[in-house]
Amino acid sequence: MTSTADTRTSIVWDYSPAPESVDHVRLRDRYGLFVDGDFRDPVDGRYVPTINPATEEPLAEIAFAGPGDVLAAVESARAAAPKWAALAPLERGKYLFRIARLIQERARELAVVETMDGGKPLRESRDVDIPLAAAHFFHYAGWADKLRYGVASREVQPLGVVGQIVPWNFPLLMAAWKLAPALACGNVAILKPAETTPLTALLLAEIAQEAELPPGVISILAGDGATGAALVRAPHIDKVAFTGSTSVGRDIQAALAGTNTPLTLELGGKSANIVFEDASLDQAVEGIVNGIFFNQGHVCCAGSRLLIQESVRDEVITKLWQRMRRLRVGDPLDKNTDVGAINSAEQLERIEALVAAGEAEGASRRTIDCELPERGYWFAPTLFTDVSPAHRIAVEEIFGPVVSVLTFRTQAEAIEKANNSRYGLAAGIWTDKGAKAFEVAGALQAGVVWQNTYNHFDPTAAFGGYKESGFGREGGAAGLRPYLRIPR
Ligand code: NDP
C-alpha cells in the first residue's frame, strides 16, 4: 500500500512548453565581412553556413575571411586609428554609451539569435549574456574620459590596432569584454568571432553602423582557426587579445614570441568548487548546479572539480543528485529549459570521449534520465564519484555538463587538492565561516574566488587566470591596462 507521503512525492509537477517567439528575428540570408563600416564579400575567403546546434538547421551564410581579407581589415583599421585616438575622450565615451543602449533596445532579438546560433538556454542569453554585454559597454563608456585614474594618474596612450579572437561559449559577451575596453582606451579593433557562433557579432556590426561609429574603428571578420591565425600574424597589429583553449593560446604565444606585440590570454580551467561541512548545504547545492550546468558547462571557469568535505559527502551527493534529476534538458528556446544543446558535433565528441575515459579509469558515473530531442547535439547532466585526482576527468577541461567529485578531510588538504591543477582560473568556497573563507581564498592559486556563490560576473570586477589559464585581466579598471601604453 502506498503511504500519503509517497503519493505526495510521486506527483509530477510538469511544465507546459513555453517557447520564445522568433517572429521578431530578421536574419539576412548572407552576412559579409564587416570592414570599413560596411558589409562586403570576401576577396579570398568563402561563405559557410552557420547552423542551429539544437536542430542542425542552417540559419544564414557567413563570409569567412581569407588572408587577403585580414590585410584589408588591418589597412582600414590603420586608417581609422589616428582619428579615433585623437577624438576627445568624452566623445569616444558617447559612442560606447550609444552602443550599450542599442544593445538594450535589441536585447530580445540578440538573446534569441544567441540561443539559436549557440544552443544556450534562452533564460541565460536573456538574463545573463545580453544584459552583461550592455553593462560592459556602459562600464567602459564611463572610463573613456577617466583613463588616467585607472592607472594611478599616469599619462596614457592607446596602442593602435588590436586583434581580438573570441570563443563560442559567450559570443556577444566575449565580444563586449574585448571591444569595450579597447575602444574606450582609444584603440581600433578587429574581432574574430568563433566559427560556430558568428551571428551576434555580426548584429553588433549593424549596431556599430546604427551608432554611426566611424568606419574602421570596429571590423568583424568571421572565419575559422585559419582566419584567427592570419590575424595574429598580420603585420601592423599592435596588440593581440585571445580567449579560448590553452593549446591555441600556446600557439599564439609562440607566433608572437620576440615581436614585442603585447598579448593577453584567457584560457581554459579546471576550477575547484569547495564545500566545507559548515556550509549551508542546500545553498551550496544550488551553487554547484549553477557552477557546472550553467551554459551546458561550456564555461572556462566552470566548477568542474567538486571538492566535498568527507563528513558531508553523502548528504551533498544525495541532495545534488535529487536536484540534478529535476533539471530540464531540451529546446533552448523554451523558457523552462535549464540545459540546452551542446554547441557543436565536435564539442559533443570531446565530451563523450572524456566521459568514456572517466568510466574506463574506474570512476562511477550517473547521468540523469531524460528524453533528448532526436536532432541536434545533446549531453545530459552527469555526475562522477569515486574519482581519483589522477583521473583524466579530474585533470582535463571537459567543457560540458559533467562534474567530478573529490573529497577532503582538512582545510589544508582542500587547498592542496584545489591547487593540484595546471590551471588556475577560478574557485568557489562554501562555508559559514568568514575567516575560513578569506584564509582559503588567499591560499588558492586562482584568478577569481567566489564565496558562497559561483559564476557571478560583473563588469567592474577583474577576471583572468594563473598558470595555464593565461595572463592579463579583463573587466574593471584592471581591464584598461592591457589596452594602454604608459610612456613614463
Ligand atoms: P579554440 O581555442 O580552438 O577557439 C577559440 C577561438 O580561437 C575561436 O575563435 C577559434 O576559431 C580561434 N582559433 C582556432 N585556432 C586558432 C589559431 N591557430 N590561431 C588563432 N585563432 C584560432 O577552442 P575550441 O573552439 O576548439 O574549443 C576546444 C576546447 O577549448 C574546448 O573543449 C574547451 O576545453 C576550450 N575552450 C575554452 C574556452 C575558454 O573560454 N577558456 C572557450 C572555448 C573553448 P574557430 O572557432 O574557427 O576554431
Written description of the protein model:
This protein has helices at 4-10, 67-86, 89-105, 107-118, 122-143, 147-150, 171-184, 199-210, 225-233, 246-256, 281-293, 313-325, 345-360, 392-395, 411-419, 434-443; strands at residues 30-31, 33-35, 38-40, 46-52, 57-64, 157-158, 161-165, 188-192, 218-220, 239-243, 263-266, 272-275, 305-309, 364-367, 382-385, 402-408, 423-424, 426-430, 448-451, 466-467, 470-471, 484-485. By secondary structure, it is of the alpha/beta class. The strands form six sheets. A seven-stranded mixed β-sheet has the order 14-15-16-13-12-18-19, sandwiched between helices. Strands 9-8-7-10-11-21 form a six-stranded mixed β-sheet, with helices on both faces. Mean pLDDT is 96; it is low at 1-5. Bound molecules: NADPH dihydro-nicotinamide-adenine-dinucleotide phosphate. NADPH dihydro-nicotinamide-adenine-dinucleotide phosphate binds next to helix 9, helix 10 and helix 13.
